């Protein structure tokens, strides 16, 4: 195996998807506890910066008590390099959250055992499903009483339409939670509670066939475990690696992040089952990770991570080849060559620099003004990764420029912010240059836009909210389009690329139109339209 192949084989790039409070932060910390964190970028580093930050931009973050900045954590476990992409969740839920999933090769879906599948999980799951990436389900908080594990499986199937294949099975819950049974090894992993879970949980391993099992875990729990396992063996979904790889079934794990129960075992099994960095579609064919030329795509642009500068950082996912600091690469969109000089700064932990990166890794490029969302960066013959998706916004409004003499700055600001992916712009069809309708996925993005327009472009604006809550890109034959009865509560517009979009006030109204027009396609994601 070449060095490049060895590095690819040991990498896993994934994101945790969950509803707020399911325990994502806790699980992330625990994964870092088990892996030695080798580089902390984005969230952790940014938090450190934030403490010293006095800039007004950071002020917005402080006021709201949220983290707008967050990116990727890299840690090693058992010889593997894990890139954990952070998906901003609470009020800072935005299109970035979805975009991050485009850079991931698999996802861990974290679910609160008492709540089951929750709304934000549904949205993030839909994006993963659409991409067809493997989704691993971790049912968390087993140290608290929750739903019956079989009911949780039914919940996944009913709400998300995915069948699960239990890898672990819990032994009790709440106070009675003793550990997990690993169906592949037929072993029970029993834990002692560690104070606050600050240390790795001590574990005792027992075979299911151990004659003293009833004494060890009690005869009631032992009988329930045997019964459940028998049922799963007969009626459950087998752990078929091919179907997992396509995201058709989800391997199911149980544990408790706060007490560390099941976390390390999960990490091990995840590494076994999760894909190594995958190929990506480009014009002219798939780009395989093992191809020697360095290629990557920009999936996120972040403004002002360094409070002392007005920098924009372009986050790039390496797809193929080996990245080296100071290398000269091409941006085929602008046809310009660029020296990738300062990727290291973001990833400063022990060392100041990232000298090399491999497929699956994320690097931050600070070259000002050079990159746009979806750009390809490559060496060798120019290639272009195929369509970077845009996701249907859920909040809409019109921004009014308060001072007419600032018109040019206003226009420029809005355009640049849309190129960065902070906002999507929609226009009345054939209406010429009217003020655009702005669409965002998370409400907070409006505040971010207004804030940045003031601080970077000197433009004060006011926002008129519009009553729409849904958008779909619509495709289909002309005559079918003409026949649609749009009714009240809809507005037809076009996006910045001239694609036809309809905004809907209510989900019910939208579904009604979708059902009545089977010849048309209503897309919640725009990709290469
Ligand atoms: P996030 O919003 O998904 O990042 O969730 P956090 O990690 O911040 O956790 C939300 C709350 O759930 C916190 O109070 C955690 O201490 C708690 N929590 C997380 N994991 C567990 C768990 O395994 N068991 C219990 N009992 N509480 C947990």
UniProtKB/TrEMBL annotation:
CDD domains: RF3 (cd04169)
Alphabetized Pfam families for the sequence: EF-G_D2 (PF22042), GTP_EFTU (PF00009), RF3_C (PF16658)
Domain of life: Bacteria
Identification of the protein by name: Peptide chain release factor 3
A single Gene Ontology CC term: cytosol
Keywords: Cytoplasm, GTP-binding, Nucleotide-binding, Protein biosynthesis
Keyword Kinase: no
Location (main, coarse): cytoplasm
A Gene Ontology biological process term: regulation of translational termination
Domain Tr-type G, residue spans: 9-278
Protein localization: Cytoplasm
Family: Belongs to the TRAFAC class translation factor GTPase superfamily. Classic translation factor GTPase family. PrfC subfamily.
Listed PANTHER family: PEPTIDE CHAIN RELEASE FACTOR RF3
Binding site for GTP: 18-25, 86-90, 140-143
Function: Increases the formation of ribosomal termination complexes and stimulates activities of RF-1 and RF-2. It binds guanine nucleotides and has strong preference for UGA stop codons. It may interact directly with the ribosome. The stimulation of RF-1 and RF-2 is significantly reduced by GTP and GDP, but not by GMP.
Species whose genome carries this gene: Armatimonas rosea
A GO molecular-function annotation: GTP binding
């Amino acid at each position: 195996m070449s060095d490049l192949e060895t590095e690819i084989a040991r990498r896993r790039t994934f994101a945790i998807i969950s509803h707020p409070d399911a325990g994502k932060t806790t699980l992330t910390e625990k994964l870092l506890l088990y892996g030695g964190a080798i580089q902390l970028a984005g969230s952790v580093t940014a938090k450190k910066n934030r403490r010293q930050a006095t800039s007004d931009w950071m002020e917005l973050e402080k006021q709201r008590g949220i983290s707008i900045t967050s990116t990727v954590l890299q840690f090693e476990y058992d010889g593997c390099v894990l890139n954990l992409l952070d998906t901003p969740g609470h009020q800072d839920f935005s299109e970035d959250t979805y975009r991050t999933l485009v850079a991931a090769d698999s996802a861990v879906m974290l679910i609160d055992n008492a709540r089951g599948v929750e709304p934000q999980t549904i949205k993030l799951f839909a994006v993963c499903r659409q991409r067809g990436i493997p989704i691993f389900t971790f049912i968390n908080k087993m140290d608290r009483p929750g739903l019956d594990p079989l009911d949780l499986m039914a919940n996944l199937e009913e709400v998300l339409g995915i069948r699960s294949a239990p890898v672990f099975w819990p032994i009790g819950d709440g106070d009675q939670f003793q550990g997990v049974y690993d169906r592949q090894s037929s072993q029970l992993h029993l834990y002692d509670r560690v104070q606050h879970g600050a240390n790795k949980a001590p574990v005792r391993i027992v075979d299911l066939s151990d004659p003293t099992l009833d004494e060890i875990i009690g005869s009631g729990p032992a009988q329930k475990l045997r019964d459940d396992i028998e049922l799963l063996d007969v009626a459950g979904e087998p752990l078929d690696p091919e179907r997992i790889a396509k995201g058709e079934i989800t391997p199911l794990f149980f544990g408790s992040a706060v007490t560390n129960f099941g976390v390390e075992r999960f990490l091990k099994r995840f590494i076994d089952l999760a894909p190594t960095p995958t190929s990506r579609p480009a014009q002219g064919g798939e780009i395989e990770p093992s191809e020697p030329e360095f290629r990557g795509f920009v999936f996120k642009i972040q403004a002002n991570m360094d409070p002392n500068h007005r920098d924009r950082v372009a986050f790039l996912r390496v797809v193929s080849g080996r990245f080296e600091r100071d290398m000269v690469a091409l941006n085929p969109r602008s046809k310009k060559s660029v020296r990738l000089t300062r990727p290291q700064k973001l990833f400063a932990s022990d060392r100041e620099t990232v000298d090399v990166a491999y497929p699956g890794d994320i690097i931050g490029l600070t070259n000002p003004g050079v990159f746009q969302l979806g750009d390809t960066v490559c060496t060798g013959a120019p290639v272009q990764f195929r369509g970077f998706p845009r996701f249907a916004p859920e909040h809409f409004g019109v921004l009014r420029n308060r001072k007419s003499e600032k018109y040019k700055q206003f226009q420029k600001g809005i355009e640049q912010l849309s190129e960065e992916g902070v906002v999507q712009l929609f226009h009345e069809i054939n209406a010429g240059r009217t003020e655009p309708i702005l669409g965002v996925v998370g409400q907070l993005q409006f505040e971010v836009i207004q804030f940045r327009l003031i601080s970077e472009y000197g433009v004060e604006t006011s926002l008129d909210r519009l009553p729409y809550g849904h958008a779909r890109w619509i495709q289909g034959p002309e005559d079918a389009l003409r026949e649609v009865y749009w009714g009240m509560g809809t507005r037809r517009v076009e996006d910045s690329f001239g694609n036809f979009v309809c905004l809907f006030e209510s989900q019910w109204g939208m579904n009604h139109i979708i059902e009545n027009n089977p010849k048309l396609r209503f897309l919640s994601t725009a990709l290469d339209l």
